[in-house]
Amino acid sequence: MIPIRGKSRLCTQLFLKQLSSDSFAFLHTTRIRAQELGTHNVEFLFPRLCGPSVKKLLEEYNIEVSKVPNSGPRGNVLKGDVLSYIKDQKLSFAPSKKHADASKKVVIKKGKTHDDLEMSPSKKTTAQQSVLSKNTIPHAYMNVECNIDKVYEYQERMKKDGFDSPLISFIVKCAAAAARKVPQMNITKHNGQVRSLNSVNIALNKAGNTTTVVKKADTLTVQLISEEISKLVEATDVSMRIYDLGDSGIAEFKAVITPPEVAVLAVGSARCVFEDSDFRQKVRITLSFNNEVISSEIAGSFIGYFKEHLENPVTVCLP
Question: Looking at residues 128-139, what average pLDDT do you find?
Answer without folding.
Answer: 89
